[in-house]
Specification:
659 residues; alpha+beta; five-stranded antiparallel sheet; 23 helices; 21 strands
Length: 659
């Protein structure tokens, strides 16, 4: 889409003392834009929106006892819950996993949602105070420029616009309000200009810190270097098990059934006519090779008789220009159209006639609503176009794919209607002839009791998460995935997690004890080697004593890695703390890397002028965003924010996560 350009976006500067600038401001400053983008690509409510439209916060205004608030902007429970749900959807889109409600609350997403909505109310107050009135014409123009709403020809498609909003379940009035706020927000923060904000000295120091490279010598010491680890005594095994019981816990298993609605369910119902396929082919000519191009001149006459006289004169030895001048009485009767494509001409007789005429003067005039055309073809570039028959099946498939989502929404609406009436997923599925799938005894990782992955089909991760967020013998709400599938889950049976007896997992406990011992012994070898190296022993000698290989890693910055030479990112971070010649070890999952700082390669600013300039501009934007953050903080302090903590707490306590 091509929305109104947002304020400069924060660019993270990976130096610790400037990290507070990056990724901090845009969440607040462009809340309306986030709402629009989150809304258009799948919103599934996690919490049921019930109860009255009560306020949990108020920005600005005056509170009068018994009467309530006068002026200012209120923040409702529904707004905070909606923002909370959108955050859940954003996390699901980014990670592919949907957080459980309990985890989302534990991580404070509801608090962040409240702060986001309050910040939006602060912006709304500022928009009103500074008189940033956005006309409906400007809003309509912004929506019309959004490529997401463009039809096949690239122009705004009102039907697609309404369809996308319907799929996202966003009322048009709410979307229009968000677009209006977005435009006003851009104007509000346009007062902050980022150019030249960063001091040159700061820019140079940060750039040198980012660009500095180092070369390290590395030795990878795997834990497996330690062999013949003894078996634990019964006392050691029992003590280890008692201290690490949770490591051997048998997970909770759930059995559930679900109904999944996808475009595949409605695809057999989608039909397209041969005419529609041909129209699609004509509209997408540019995709099927290089279309024919012709260099064309034309003379226009208002009657067939005059047009034929021009042709007769031109075929009788006169030039087209002279013949047209003689008949039409004007010296500029011939118009040079230049090189044109068929689509450049009005569809119908004119386009067909021009592109079927032979090279040279057309033998007969062509009639169109504009008059009679005498055509001269100066040059033909035949182009290379894939024949219709070769792409007909693909076009038909593409058209069906475009139409299927609308039928899916209808099916989802029908299913939701029957579901609300029957309160039974199975009954609703039977009524609409939908398949109910069942899964027996699967854990939260998607594995069965034997530790094998269970095939859950499309949206398996989302289905599994919903099953583990739903109470036993209960059904979830109708949920939507990031890919546009819809489903309902019924959790049939829950087998609680339990701590097994030692006898049930003795082999696993013994293996874990030995792995821990092996790691301790390997760590001791590594420490001894590092001490020797820092005392002056050559790294090659240390590698030889350990029976391992010494490697030299490629030059890296503090943000790079060279895993092929054992230099992981954590190891690279440690490398940049070392003076040249010093040695340190860095632990990994299955071993340790011993590394030595061999060489430091500083940045030559004189040779990095263009990258330095780009970096300076990014730093300017980052500092500009910090100024926006300060402006927002000042507005918030100016208006004042009142939080009804009791109402906020009750709003989320009243919706306990399902177990």
């Amino acid at each position: 889409m091509r929305p109104v350009p947002p304020p400069p976006r924060a660019i993270a500067i990976p130096v610790s003392k400037l990290r507070k600038y990056a990724g901090f401001v845009i969440m607040f400053a462009l809340m309306s834009m986030l709402i629009i983008s989150f809304g258009l690509w799948g919103i599934g409510d996690m919490l049921r929106l019930g109860g009255r439209n009560s306020e949990v916060a108020h920005v600005g205004g005056t509170h009068i006892p018994l009467y309530g608030w006068f002026g200012g902007t209120g923040v409702t429970v529904e707004e905070v819950r909606d923002r909370f749900n959108r955050q859940i959807e954003q996390i699901q889109r980014q990670t592919g996993q949907r957080p459980e409600p309990e985890a989302a609350l534990r991580y404070g997403l509801h608090i962040r949602a409240l702060d986001d909505v309050v910040q939006r109310a602060v912006i709304d107050n500022a928009i009103r105070e500074y008189g940033l009135a956005i006309s409906m014409a400007e809003v309509q123009a912004t929506i019309a420029r959004n490529p997401s709403f463009a039809g096949t020809g690239g122009a705004f498609d009102a039907n697609r616009y309404r369809s996308l909003l319907q799929q996202a379940r966003i009322p048009e009035a709410a979307y229009v309000a968000d677009v209006r706020r977005e435009i006003a927000t851009v104007q509000l923060f346009g007062v902050v200009r980022s150019e030249g904000l960063a001091p040159v000295s700061l820019r140079d120091e940060l750039f040198k810190g980012q660009g500095e490279k180092r070369i390290a010598g590395t030795i990878y010491v795997p834990d497996s270097i330690v062999v013949n680890v003894p078996s634990p005594t019964p006392e050691q095994l029992t003590a280890y098990f008692e201290a690490n019981k949770t490591k051997f816990q048998i997970p909770e298993y759930r059995s559930f059934s679900y109904v999944m609605l996808t475009v595949d369910d409605v695809m057999p119902q989608v039909t397209v006519t041969p005419e529609q396929v041909k129209q699609e082919y004509d509209a997408r000519q540019g995709e099927f090779g290089k279309p024919e191009k012709r260099d064309v001149d034309q003379a226009m006459a208002d009657s067939e008789e005059k047009a034929k006289k021009i042709i007769a004169g031109a075929t009788g030895g006169k030039s087209l220009e002279d013949a047209a001048k003689e008949v039409l009485g004007t010296a500029d009767g011939v118009i040079k159209l230049g090189e044109i494509l068929k689509k450049d001409l009005p569809a119908g007789p004119l386009a067909d006639g021009v592109f079927s005429a032979p090279l040279g003067l057309a033998p007969a005039p062509i009639q169109s609503p504009l008059g009679w055309h005498v055509i001269r073809i100066n040059k033909i570039d035949a182009g290379q176009v894939t024949p219709f028959d070769q792409v007909k099946e693909k076009l038909e498939k593409d058209l069906k794919a475009q139409l299927a989502p609308d039928l899916l929404i209808k099916l989802v609406t029908d299913f939701e209607r029957v579901l609300s009436k029957t309160q039974s997923m199975a009954t609703a599925a039977q009524d609409l002839q939908l398949k109910v799938k069942s899964v027996e005894n699967v854990d939260a990782r998607g594995q069965d009791m034997a530790g094998k992955d269970v095939a859950l089909g499309p949206a398996g991760v989302a289905v599994l998460q919903a099953a583990f967020a739903t109470r036993e013998s209960s059904e979830s709400e109708l949920l939507e995935t990031q890919n546009g599938e819809y489903f309902v889950v019924r959790t049939e049976r829950i087998t609680p997690a339990r701590i097994p007896a030692l006898t049930e997992v003795e082999a696993k406990v013994k293996e874990a004890w030995q792995n821990d011992e092996r790691r301790k012994l390997a760590d001791a070898k590594v420490k001894e080697a590092v001490d020797k190296a820092n005392a002056g022993t050559d790294m090659a000698t240390i590698a030889k004593d350990l029976g391992l290989e010494l490697r030299t890693a490629n030059a890296v910055t503090r943000f790079d890695a060279d895993t092929g030479n054992y230099l992981t990112q954590p190891a690279a971070q440690e490398l940049f703390k070392l003076p040249v010649g010093k040695v340190v070890s860095v632990r990994s999952a299955q071993g340790s890397v011993i590394l030595r700082a061999n060489e430091i390669i500083p940045v030559d600013l004189a040779k990095e002028k263009e990258p330095l300039d780009r970096f300076g501009k990014q730093l300017d934007i980052t500092i500009g965003n910090d100024l926006i953050a300060q402006l927002l903080a000042g507005l918030r302090q100016k208006y004042g924010v009142s939080i009804n903590e009791a109402a906020f707490t009750a709003a989320f306590q009243s919706q306990q996560p399902q177990q």
